[in-house]
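quick one, 199 residues, struct below
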Amino acid sequence: MPARGDHDARRRDVSEAVWRVLAEHGFGGLTLRAVAAEMGASTGLLTHYFPNKRALVAHALDVADERTASRPLRTARPGLPALRAALLDVLCLTPAATAMNRVWVSSWDVSLADPGLADRQRERYDRWRDRLRPHVTAAVALGELPAALDADDVAASAAAFAHGLVVHALFDPARFPPDRQVAMLDAFLASLNPASRPD
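---
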């Protein structure tokens, strides 16, 4: 048996290879053979970690979650600026953010086909809306948004807007460069408060 440290190091190597395959080919190109080739190893070695494709996909989602959680995030004062910062963090504004979004968008197909993986994705998006909601609540308390707005609806709308913009930027980056994405996000946020619009 390899030492525990060797096992952990090898698992980290596997995770890095999984991420590189995801970033280059998405979940559609994620296979034991592709990961083995990325590592310069045999598929036999990988079967010690992943007995089947579903186990590999589940691990790939773990890796994507870890990468997402560990990325640097913007900071801003409470209210709309914090909501704006949280949404900017998910847009395709840098090569790294674009690669991460390619991974997540490519995961939707495999997740929709597997109830267990679909539940994981639903929980992930629940958590994201949960992180957006306090920013909306703070914006209402600060008078930046109308008190009549429903915080759950606004958080869901903001999440949906950001996801939609990500998809457009992934498929048509020339028409949706970073500066246009930012401008569109700012226009969306401004639209949440009709009183702030010029007459």
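The chain has a mean pLDDT of 88.
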